Amino acid sequence: MLLRLLVVLAPAYILSQFLRNSVAVLAPNLSQDLGIGSAGLGTLTGAFFLSFAFMQLPVGMALDRFGPRRVMASLLAVVGAGCVVFAFADSAPVLLLGRILMGMGCAPLLMGAMVVFARAFAPERFASLTAMHLAIGNTGILLATSPLAMMVDLIDWRGTFFGAGLLAGLFAVLMVVTLPEQIRGKPLSSGRSEGITQSLMGVGRVIADRRLWPLMPMLFTGYGSVAAMTALWGGPYLADIYGLNPIDRGNVLLLMAVGSILGPICYAPLDRRFNTRKWVVVPGCALVMGIFGLLAIWGRPPFWLLPILLFLISAGNGYFSVSMAHARSLYPDHALGRGMTVSNMLVMGGVGLLQPMSGLVAGLFTDGATGAMGEPSYRAVFAFLGVSLGLSLAFYLKAPDCPPYKKSPSDKIKGL
After folding, report:
1. Residues 180, 252: one domain?
2. Are 72 and 128 in contact (CB under 8 A)?
3. Domain Major facilitator superfamily (MFS) profile spans what residues (predicted)?
4. Which one in 103, 142, 170, 251 has a CA-CA gap of 20 to 30 Å to 21?
5. At 182, phi and psi to the nearest 5?
6. Is residue 248 domain-shared with residue 118, that is, in the same domain?
7. Where residue 250 sits, what CATH number does that domain have?
8. Rg of the Cα atoms in the chain
9. Is 237 within the bounds of a domain?
10. How many CB atoms lie within 10 A of CB 150?
11. b/e burial code for range 258-296 (CB count within 10 A of at least 16 → b)
């Protein structure tokens, strides 16, 4: 059953990760063909995340009411439409519309799978199943590097995105045909017919529960801090400080992408092995925080050491799946969709805000005459990311642990 579910769910999430990370490779082509400047490229990247975040609350309510199959299949069709619009775009506004549709359509593709895992399997398996799904899905990050560049050379970026749109449609059909409404007699929807007002009140109760508050900063910064490194600062840092050419930079960043796949796999069994979630997250976060601190202090470590440090940042961030499981353990079954999408809103908010915030920090230390970023700018960025994780860790230490094998009804958020 698990293999069958992964065959259905994982390809859609791989596509989501591919689309999310594709603009960096396409940037030269979009600039040449449509005259998109750096600000426009930033807008295209941000539009995906903003539309993705905007959809989280309605997606959460829909997942609870209608179940993952109908919600994910419907929005995969929106992904397909967005890819086709992007492929035929003749101006920046049309490109932007395509990216917005992609972000909206990808909104349920991780959370929907997590709702399936939460409702179909024992709670103690949630972290390992989520980690496995993240590891498989993160191959989409790999596909958005050299393979995407090769596809663009072969069939142009328009043909590549038209093909991605066809794949999204195929995955939607696959979802409808093969993903069941219930597994082993357990429905994948809540079975409750709630109005919009009731659903929104349920979301409010999730956010208002004080036991969740110490986890919120960790969800906000845990993934976003590392995403700032992989998606924004990694390439410029390697170019400005080490003088690497595009191929060599790509090889180092590819190593970080491999780390993002291996990390969740390594963390997957730890919460059950040690019967704790909190004390799996704490050392994982401390590791990543420590490496950011080391980079902030050192500035330019020996090049032989740098790929190891960057790999450890990416792989060490695998604790993210366990922090999501920690949050999930506080949500009652009938509100899983809303609860998980609240978590994902925090995660995507961190991705969307930490990058421009770190850019402001870097700007304080750039050369005023040329605008060039030197070692002080990058050290400031690393310090900012490390301090952000440190503050989140301080709050997280106040959170109650929710061991996989020692949950009681009192651990659940009340009143939902």
Report:
1. no
2. no
3. 5-403
4. 170
5. -145, 155
6. no
7. 1.20.1250.20
8. 21
9. yes
10. 12
11. bbbbebbbbbbebbbeeebbbebbbebbebbbbbbbebb
Closest alpha carbon to 361 in 382, 346, 331, 341: 382
For the chain, 416 residues long, give each residue's pLDDT as a single digit of tens.
Answer: 788 888 999 999 999 999 988 887 787 788 888 888 756 776 787 788 888 888 888 888 888 888 899 999 999 999 999 999 999 999 999 999 999 999 999 999 998 998 898 888 888 888 889 888 988 998 998 888 778 888 888 999 999 999 999 999 999 999 999 988 877 666 666 555 555 666 667 678 778 888 889 999 999 999 989 988 887 788 888 888 998 886 788 788 888 889 988 999 899 889 989 999 999 999 999 999 999 999 999 999 999 999 999 999 999 999 998 998 899 888 877 777 778 878 888 888 888 788 778 888 888 888 766 667 889 999 999 999 999 999 999 999 999 998 988 654 444 455 45
121 and 69, same structural domain? yes
Does 71 map to a domain?
yes
Q: For residue 43, what are the domain limits?
A: 1-185
Pairing state between β 182-183 and 186-187: antiparallel
Dig out the tokens for 246 from the structure: 């595009």
Give how far Cα 98 sits from Cα of 92, 109, 111, 149, 352, Å: 10, 18, 22, 20, 19
pTM listed for this prediction: 0.79
Q: How many domains does the chain have?
A: 2
Domain for residue 194, yes or no? no
- Say if residue 224 is in the same domain as residue 289: yes
Tokens linked to 415: 């009143």
186 bridge partner residues: 183
Strand partners, 410: none
